[in-house]
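Example record

The entry below shows one chain as it appears in the dataset: sequence first, then structure tokens.
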Amino acid sequence: MNNHLKNNTINVINQLEEVNETIGVLSGGVETLNDDMQRLRNEIVHRQNELQPVMKELPILKKSIEEQNASIDGIKYNQDVVEQDISLIKQKIGDMKSISYDGTFTWKISDIQEKIGQQL
């Protein structure tokens, strides 16, 4: 019985050593995880500090873009008006080419070739 008790004690001691070893490994893992969590917290704070000025500028940039878009819309409208004016001026110039200032009447027929071809 003494031998049996001795073997049981040795088994319990071996098991306790294994448990102690496992606890040591797990403690090291927990410590590593805690270090990683702290590093990540520090990194998050650092990134938030970097983003803060950018976030303050976003509304200013958005307003600037809206103003530029409004300005571009105004320029497009003015360009359309100028193109219409140019078209009217071209038409007036074309009309003036057919006006005679010496008292003779000149009748201008546009696309004469097409019109002659249609009659044949």
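Notes for this example: The mean pLDDT is 87. Residues 57 and 108 are 64 Å apart (CA to CA).
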